[in-house]
Design brief:
The protein has about 300 residues and is mainly α. It has three domains: about 1-75, no CATH class; about 80-170, no CATH class; about 220-305, no CATH class. The chain contains twelve helices and eight strands. The strands form three sheets. It has a three-stranded antiparallel beta sheet. Strands 6-7-8 form a three-stranded antiparallel beta sheet, with no helix packed on it. It has a two-stranded antiparallel sheet with strand order 1-2. A hairpin with a 2-residue loop joins β1 and β2. The longest helix has about 35 residues, at about 15-45. This is Bacteriophage/plasmid primase P4 C-terminal domain-containing protein.
Length: about 300
């Protein structure tokens, strides 16, 4: 039985055990491929010839077929596209990350977070601050910098050790909150106080991973949207829908409410959903059918988290 077949029906205990065993075997194969890949990278960085075909095969596995990443790693040109991707900005001095000829992951990690990246971690993912929001590409940008800062001294284990330390060192304290319920909505041009209408500048001090892909304009008033909503639902329902749309913009769910769009086909339901998705952003939304919610007990976790 394949993993897909298991997901498609209610799992029994035996089925779950079988799926778990397959998942563990797959994870072990992935880890073996990653270990071999980084070992080959280490050997190549020391100036030795490696089997490019084997390196390419492993790279496609490690980077899930992303040909750009594959090519960059095979050719040794992986420098990324973050704020510190310009090599001229960095004066590499790899010796300063060694104490008594032993590599210190703390020194490298501290240098990166003090001088190059604004980051925080949830213990697993490293989030990087960029254009007003923390993005989940911190691991990748961190690797970019280790390559540039260590140069020919770079080794995969140095990356692993320094990244592990950085993730542990940047977990927020209990007094700090990620995506806080502070009355602010992160939009492309600032932090909007939805109570007062005041637009504040972005700041890395606010640990937010959600940003709406729209610019706040207090003078905007598009009558087309209101006319459309009035044409597809009773007029007294429009304000309720607008309230629910506003509810989707804040970071809390304390009201524990949902809304269902009903009606015959071609009556505007999909257009309303597309309008809402455009407002909050595809990256901030997910789509799960009612059938999946009822029959696939793992679907919610895999789709929402």
């Amino acid at each position: 039985m394949t993993t897909l077949e298991i997901w498609e029906e209610e799992m029994t205990e035996d089925m779950y055990e079988q799926w778990l065993e397959q998942a563990i075997e797959s994870a072990e194969r992935n880890q073996q491929a990653q270990d071999e890949f980084w070992e080959l990278i280490d050997v190549r960085n020391m100036g030795y010839q490696v089997d490019k075909d084997r390196l390419g095969s492993l790279a496609r596995h490690v980077f899930c077929g992303d040909e750009k990443l594959v090519d960059e790693h095979i050719n040794g040109t992986y420098f990324g596209s973050g704020s510190s991707s310009d090599k001229s900005e960095i004066q590499a001095d790899p010796q300063k990350y060694f104490l008594n000829k032993s590599f210190s992951p703390v020194l490298l990690g501290r240098d990166i977070i003090d001088n190059y990246l604004q980051v925080f971690s949830d213990g697993n993912v490293l989030y990087r601050y960029d254009k007003g929001v923390y993005k989940q590409d911190g691991d990748r940008e961190f690797e970019n910098l280790t390559v540039k800062l260590l140069g020919t001294w770079w080794k995969g284990k140095y990356l692993t050790e320094s990244l592990t330390w950085t993730k542990k060192a940047t977990v927020p304290s209990q007094s700090e909150y990620v995506n806080p319920n502070d009355g602010l909505i992160n939009v492309a041009n600032g932090l909007l106080n939805w109570n007062t209408g005041e637009l504040l500048p972005h700041t890395p001090e606010r640990l937010g991973t959600i940003q709406l892909p729209v610019m706040y304009d207090p003078t905007a008033n598009d009558p087309v949207v209101k006319e459309f909503l009035c044409s597809v639902m009773p007029e007294d329902a429009v304000d309720t829908l607008l309230e629910m749309i506003g509810y989707c913009l804040v970071t809390h769910t304390k009201y524990e409410k949902a809304i269902m769009l009903i009606g015959s086909g071609a009556n505007g339901k999909s257009t309303v959903i597309n309008l809402l998705t455009a407002l909050i952003g595809q990256v901030n939304s997910t789509n799960i059918s009612l059938q999946d919610l009822e029959t696939h007990r793992f679907k919610i976790a895999s789709s929402l988290f």
